[in-house]
Amino acid sequence: ATTYDVRAVEEKWQPVWDRLDPFRADDDAVLSGAREKKYALTMFPYPSGDLHMGHAEVFALHDVIARYWRFRGYEVLNPMGWDSFGLPAENAAIRNDTHPATYTYANIETQYESMKRYGVSFDWSRRLHTSDPEYYRWTQWLFLLMHERGMAYRKNSAVNWCPQDQTVLANEQVLADGTCERCGAVVTKRELTQWYFRTTAYAQELYDCLDDLQDSWIAKVVNAQRNWIGRSEGAHVTFEIEGEIEGEIEGEVAEPITVFTTRPDTLWGATFMVVAADAALASSLVTDEQRPALEAYVDDVRKASDIDRLATDRPKTGVFLGRYAINPVSGERLPIWAADYVLADYGTGAIMAVPAHDQRDLDFAKAFDLPVRMVVDTGEPDPQETFVATTGDGTYVNSGPLDGVSDKAAGIRAAIDILAERGTGSGTVNFRLRDWLLSRQRYWGAPIPIVHCEACGEVPVPTDQLPVELPELTGADLRPQGTSPLGAAAEWVATTCPSCGGAASRDTDTMDTFVDSSWYFLRFVSPNLETAPFDEALARAWGPIDLYIGGDEHAVLHLLYARFFTKVLRDAGLITWSEPFSAYLSQGKVINNGRKMSKSLGNGVNLGEQLAEFGVDAVRLTLVFASPPEDNIDWADMSPGGSLKFLQRAWRLAGDVTSEVGVSPEGGDTALRQATHRTVREAEGLVESYRFNVLVARTMELVNATRKAIDSGCGGEDPAVREAVEVVAILLSMVAPYTAEEMWERLGHEPSVAQVSWPEVDEALLVEDSVTAVVQVKGKVKARLEVSPDISETDLEALALADAAVVRAIDGATVRKVIVRTPKLVNVVV
Ligand code: ANZ
Ligand code: ZN
Fold first, then answer.
1. Is 511:139 a contact under the CB 8 Å cutoff?
2. Spatial CB neighbours of 409, under 8 Å, sequence gap ≥ 6
3. How many other CB atoms are found less than 10 A from the CB of residue 33?
4. I need a labelling partner for 539 at 20 to 30 A (CA). Which of 133, 381, 517, 638 fits?
5. Which residues bind ATP (predicted)?
6. Is the CB of 582 under 6 A from ligand 1?
């Protein structure tokens, strides 16, 4: 036969793999230390629809490393499951008047079948679904652990609200343009009492640990995390408020206000103060006279997104609060304004405005005719005239004790010292990171295991009563109404207080699905354990993950949340490591005709159709060969048909091998043997540095070399040919497992090629037997000599000077110097 039937081959090997189960991870082998472990993880999918090209790409890439590690003798944990709570299932249930579980579990089965056919080396015995009560029981348990450790709490505040999905969103779920990451609606604000995880408690550590991940994570993801955590060094400065506050209590004095500033050195240039208009501070400071103006303004502000509010090019708006603060170093009176460009939840929600050196403050000063005073002379024109703030280094002026200082760091230090001495300020570090808002007013998620009792307050559900299972609700009941649909299950809501036994009600919010995925990698070490979320000894043995592969869209949210969970669990003594993902690789996107695939463009490529036409192996090979993993792949430029042709060519090699299994290749075609061994050695480095596309290229070259050897030289009976074809099968199995199994079988081996070890490299065959030495005369190349790589200096010089072309070039002149760099260069100076 000159070709194999792709479909038949796929159907043939599936049951064999099921029977041999070569990918099952052996806990005992790692617990006993018999084998070193590797934990390979790729992001688990949402069960919406069938797998698509993006899944196909990431699974193909991921499988190279997982299979490679297994070849290298590691015990490999390579699990898969489903992130199966979430909005898509709920929306489908509303559309079809069914239960979200119907949609969810049907899709899971479809995807499972597709994954099996796709031939990824997952350990299916560890399969999990986050929407199973057996799983979310432990999500709830972990929520309670957070609660017990002060890491979960409820507070009332203005939150991001998606008017389309009728639910709150975490800051991380609001896109840069202020829209909902799920549905694209413009996100608004609402005052609500919601549950939060205290991610800010770990801000510093989450930030610092990024240094250790710098080299093993993809750089743009490390940077995205850094920016999101947003560490700023600066100072808190406290300003007294002038006069009395009007109100019920006669003579009451307003509380001083504290600002966060990164430039305490510009304090002498502060000419007014600004507080966030929508924060409590503004309404506590405002005079009765100005109150109506403030209230009208706040109504407008609530409609804008944070991004708009911070934009530098937006016209500045605000309201004077009728009150003054006192500059702690100069005693100057500063009018206090409320404006929307100061955010309520960053720093202290209040700033000192230094219009000369901050553009937003300058724009505001211009809009409301407030004074501008330069305190750092940078040599640039005065901002008071140009309305361009100067932000660079310079010499301090109009700054009392700082005058004449010309170094920013020294100025900041001096200012902090002065503030500290007077007790009106101190150096501090501020983070942009906010606590994680985890309450969702939706049905298809893990219920928050808290009971509200009038007498006892928030009472945790005792852990032996977990899981708090979702009540049965379908279709119409799930329609978003702004409150949680769980509230409609009156019988479910009504319960007794675990503490006093009195009547109480269940919390009706469910958890953000990002909670489910923040710990799934731990559940995989013991997916069926009924006494704890995970086995601690196994977590110690398997963790942390050696390589995590996933999409860029999770560079901030999911990775940060998983890192946070890891740190809390470490502090609770449940795990021993501090970071979950030792290495992280993000794959590019599969696009089509230069554009992202989308329904509206009609340029989607259907994975199922591609698989039907070209087969699994050709699609996988195409995706791996297309580009380095992190680059996008334009499917329009790809040729899966070409990949299939190559696979058939590789497969035909196996049919041409006529030597017996186990014959020593010693004495066979040396050139072919060298090519084989060099390819193996190179493959090691290529896989370990994730250059999988080059791995495929090298495999193709070896296929060509072998074909040439068979046809024009040694023939199929040479054991060097068998050696080469076996190596091709092993290398190919990381990308095209079906073809590789077929080859392995044709070569006379028992299945499966997945179970063999990595080919051993004969170092002697790596030594190159000749290299090209370049001979230059008067700086020009005159000859190239094939020499032994370990030629001596004197031999190389003698050879060079005896070469006819070199002799001609010297043309009888006196040789002044011969510079020899063995084995590659001879430079003759005349
Ligand atoms: C005075 C000053 C002078 C400032 C100057 C900057 C330049 P990052 O680096 O992002 O941390 N700020 C503080 N809290 C704010 C809030 N809630 N909303 C909007 N702006 C706020 O920025 C810190 C700087 O942003 C702070 O330093 C403050 O302005 C402003 F020449 O204080 B600065
Ligand atoms: Zn009670």
1. yes
2. none
3. 9
4. 133
5. 599
6. no
